[in-house]
Write a structure and sequence with these properties.
With about 325 residues, the protein is α+β, with helices and mostly antiparallel strands. Helices cover about 30% and strands about 30% of the residues.
């Protein structure tokens, strides 16, 4: 239940996928952020006589000035079989994507042309970041190595499903959980965590405010910062040269080369960093264990500043090793 002093909202499950799709269209700006464009279009992709299917939509991620990213979107209800239906559908998307890239480009271009606002946003992004035109921008999203990314939007994300899509599929799959609640008067509210909500960046397409640390291009991310208490820091981070049970976005996994530790109060600072040798699934939790190439090295310390703009990390956050090396305070890391 969601409670306010004037109303109580009780769970209102989605009966059909179409209801969840309508909700996504309603909350898309808050769900995806200002630097992403959601295209609600269903068109058949894939070669005739081979694997063919219809994604529920596409997400154009323009948060990086250097590397725009395309996500094929699958909208599902949790009651569907996680392995036989959802994982198989995502796998089929990847096969269809690779077999008909030109068809994919045509679908995206035609859909964009129906929205003057979307066209204007893409043209502004292309002009600002040295992409010749929208066609070239779409080609970069579709033809670059490792271009296929999937986004699963579901009403309830169980650990079993998260573990399956992360461990059994050989491409990035991001997940979003969207739930619906209703009051006695029929008013609806929605609960979700925005797409890639915990990336420690301002949106790269926004101009940084005077005095702020410049926005970090998501393409530069290569470091994850984890909070650690004294006992875990000594026993695991220093004692075992690894860190376990870390939640990492699927699309971030190929990027992570370093792990830095923020020691919580009373230290309240980033104090060590280690180069990552490998990342492995941690049990069946949908989380990961990171193993170091060699013992962690001392840095800084890079302290939390009282009254600063950066808050103490409560969960893993992302940054770049270049930014970490130059930072004097936590404000300059995030």
């Amino acid at each position: 239940m969601l409670w306010t002093p004037t109303q109580q909202f009780h769970p209102w499950p989605f009966d059909k996928e179409a209801e969840l799709e309508t909700t996504i269209a309603e909350v898309k700006t808050a769900l995806f952020g200002e630097s992403r464009i959601y295209l609600d279009v269903k068109k058949l992709i894939g070669e005739r006589g081979r694997t063919q299917n219809i994604p529920d939509g596409y997400l154009l991620d323009l948060s990086s000035p250097r590397r725009p990213v395309l996500y094929l979107v699958e909208v599902e209800l949790a009651r569907h079989d996680p392995l036989r239906h959802i994982a198989q559908q995502l796998l089929n998307f990847s096969l269809s994507f690779k077999s008909t890239p030109q068809k994919m480009k045509g679908i995206l271009r035609d859909t964009l042309q129906k929205s003057p606002e979307a066209v204007a946003r893409c043209e502004a992004y292309a002009a600002a970041n040295n992409f010749n035109n929208i066609d070239y921008l779409l080609e970069r999203m579709i033809y670059d190595e490792g271009a296929f990314n999937a986004l699963l939007i579901i009403d309830e994300l169980e650990e079993e499903l998260e573990s399956i899509v992360r461990s059994s599929l050989r491409f990035p799959v991001e997940t979003l959980e969207v739930q619906r609640f209703r009051s006695a008067t029929g008013k609806a509210v929605y609960q979700f965590e925005p797409f890639l909500y915990d990336l420690s960046t301002q949106e790269a397409t926004r101009a940084a405010e005077p005095g702020n640390t410049p926005a970090l291009d998501p393409a530069e991310i290569d470091t994850i910062v984890v909070p650690a208490r004294e006992d875990g820091f000594k026993e695991t981070f220093l004692g075992e040269d690894m860190w376990r049970a870390v939640r990492i976005h699927s699309s971030m996994l190929p990027k992570i080369r370093y792990l830095a530790t923020y020691q919580v109060a009373p230290v309240s600072a980033i104090t060590h960093v280690a180069e990552v040798a490998r990342i492995e699934p941690w049990k069946d939790s949908g989380k990961y264990a990171l193993y170091f190439k060699e013992p962690a090295k001392k840095i800084g310390p890079i302290p939390l500043v009282s009254g600063g703009k950066a808050s103490a990390p409560q969960a893993p956050r992302y940054t770049s090793s270049a930014r970490l090396q130059k930072a004097k305070t936590l404000d300059e890391v995030f």
